C-alpha cells in the first residue's frame, strides 16, 4: 500500500498538493459562476459554454472538467431553439455526460454562499469606510504623508472589498512608534554569499516544478494559512503572470510573482512578491487577515523555499498605502530593492514605519534580509496593503 499523501474533495482524489489546490480553486470558481449566472437559462448556458470552450474561463482539475460536461449537457438539452449556434450545440451534445446531479450540488452550494457573501460584503464595506476615515485622520495629523505604491504591481480590477480591522473592532490608533535607527554606513548581511549564476544547485524537490516551467523560482507558504503557492519571475516581462496561471494559461487570479529587479540566486536586501487580492481568498486574498492584530500576532512565520534554499521569515509589520505615480515626489516603498548604505535602509524603515497599521516599531536591523508581500486593498481608492518580514533562517 502506498504511503504517498493523498488529498480529496468530495469523490475526487489528488496525489499532489498542487493538484488539490487547483481543484479547490475550480470549486470556488464554479460557486461564483452559479452565484452570478442562471445556467439553466439556455442562452446563458450557451454563452458560458462558449467562454469555457474558447478558454476565457479555464478549469484545471477533474472537478472543473465534470462541471464543463454539466454545462454542455444543459446546452445540448435546452438550446435546441438557438439555430444560429447549432454546430456548437451539437458539439456540446456529443461531449455532454450525465452530470446533472453534480450541477444540482453546486447550485445548492451557491444558494448557501449567496447569503454568506452578502453578509461578509456588507460588513467589509462598513469596516472599510470606517478605517478609511481613520487613516485619513492619521494622515492629517502627521508630517509624513507619503504613502504610496505604483500600480505596476497588481491590477486593481479584481480586488475584493476588504475588511480593514484589528482586534479592537477596527480602531487604528495614531502611529507614534519610532523606526529603528541604522547607524552603520555600509550594509552587510550574514546571508550574503555572492554566488555565480550557475554555481547553485536546484533543490531535489524543486526540480519537478522547474522542469514544468522554468519561470518557477520557489514556493511561498505562510504557516497555518491557505497561502501555499508557486512563485514565478519573468525579468524580461515583469507582469507576465499578472493574468496567467502556473502553466501560462489565462487566469483571472494570476500567479504569485517576484519583482523583476530582485535576485533569487543572491537575494537582494528586499525581495518583493506580488499577488492578487482575490475575493475567493486565493492567492493573496488572505493577507487582509493580518489587519486583525490577534491574527497578525499568531501568524508570524513565512517560508519561502526558493530553487536553491529554504528561507524562513518572521512577520514584523503590516502597512497600508495608496497608489503613487512616477512623476510625483512621494516615497514609493516598492522601489526599495537593495540597500548599500545605512541611509538607504533608514529611509525605507522611516517610511514603512509611517505606513504601519500597528503602533509598534518594525523590528528590522542593518543585517536583515527583508521579504515584502504586496497586494491591493480597498481601504481607500487605489489602496494597497503590504506585509513585511525579516529573515530568521
Automatic annotation (TrEMBL):
Top-level taxon in the UniProt lineage: Bacteria
Coiled coil stretches, renumbered: none
Gene3D superfamilies with a match to the protein in the record: Sortase
Keywords associated with the record: Hydrolase, Membrane, Transmembrane, Transmembrane helix
Transmembrane segments: 102-120
Residues at the catalytic site: 276, 376
Region (Disordered), start-end ranges: 142-175
Comp. bias regions, Acidic residues: 156-165
Biased composition (Low complexity): 142-155
GO molecular-function term, one example from the UniProt record: hydrolase activity
Matches recorded under CDD domains: Sortase_B
Protein name: Sortase B
Organism: Pseudobutyrivibrio ruminis
Amino acid at each position: 500500500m502506498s504511503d504517498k499523501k493523498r488529498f480529496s474533495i468530495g469523490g475526487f482524489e489528488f496525489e499532489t498538493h498542487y493538484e488539490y489546490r487547483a481543484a479547490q480553486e475550480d470549486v470556488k470558481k464554479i460557486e461564483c459562476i452559479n452565484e452570478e449566472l442562471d445556467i439553466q437559462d439556455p442562452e446563458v448556458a450557451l454563452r458560458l459554454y462558449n467562454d469555457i470552450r474558447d478558454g476565457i474561463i479555464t478549469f484545471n482539475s477533474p472537478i472543473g472538467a465534470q462541471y464543463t460536461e454539466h454545462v454542455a449537457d444543459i446546452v445540448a438539452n435546452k438550446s435546441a431553439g438557438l439555430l444560429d449556434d447549432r454546430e456548437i450545440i451539437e458539439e456540446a451534445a456529443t461531449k455532454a455526460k450525465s452530470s446533472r446531479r453534480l450541477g444540482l450540488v453546486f447550485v445548492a452550494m451557491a444558494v448557501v454562499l449567496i447569503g454568506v457573501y452578502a453578509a461578509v460584503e456588507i460588513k467589509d464595506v462598513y469596516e472599510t469606510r470606517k478605517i478609511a476615515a481613520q487613516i485619513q485622520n492619521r494622515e492629517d495629523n502627521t508630517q509624513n504623508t507619503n504613502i504610496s505604491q505604483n500600480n505596476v504591481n497588481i491590477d486593481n480590477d479584481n480586488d475584493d472589498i476588504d475588511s480593514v480591522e484589528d482586534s479592537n473592532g477596527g480602531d487604528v490608533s495614531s502611529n507614534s512608534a519610532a523606526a529603528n535607527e541604522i547607524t552603520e554606513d555600509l550594509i552587510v548581511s550574514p546571508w550574503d554569499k555572492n554566488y555565480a549564476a550557475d554555481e547553485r544547485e536546484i533543490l531535489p524537490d524543486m526540480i519537478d516544478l522547474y522542469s514544468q516551467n522554468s519561470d518557477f523560482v520557489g514556493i511561498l507558504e505562510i504557516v497555518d494559512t491557505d497561502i501555499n503557492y508557486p512563485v514565478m519571475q519573468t525579468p524580461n516581462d515583469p507582469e507576465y503572470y499578472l493574468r496567467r496561471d502556473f502553466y501560462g494559461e489565462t487566469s483571472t487570479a494570476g500567479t504569485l510573482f517576484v519583482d523583476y529587479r530582485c535576485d533569487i540566486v543572491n537575494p537582494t536586501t528586499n525581495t518583493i512578491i506580488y499577488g492578487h487580492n482575490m475575493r475567493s481568498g486565493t492567492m493573496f486574498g488572505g493577507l487582509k487577515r493580518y489587519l486583525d492584530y490577534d491574527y497578525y500576532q499568531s501568524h508570524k512565520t513565512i517560508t519561502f523555499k526558493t530553487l536553491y534554499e529554504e528561507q524562513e521569515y518572521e512577520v514584523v509589520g503590516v502597512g497600508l498605502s495608496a497608489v503613487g505615480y512616477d512623476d510625483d515626489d512621494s516615497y514609493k516603498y516598492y522601489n526599495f530593492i537593495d540597500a548599500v548604505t545605512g541611509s538607504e535602509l533608514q529611509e525605507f524603515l522611516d517610511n514603512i514605519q509611517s505606513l504601519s497599521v500597528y503602533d509598534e516599531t518594525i523590528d528590522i536591523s542593518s543585517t536583515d534580509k527583508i521579504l515584502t508581500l504586496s497586494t491591493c486593498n480597498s481601504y481607500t481608492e487605489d489602496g494597497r496593503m503590504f506585509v513585511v518580514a525579516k529573515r530568521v533562517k
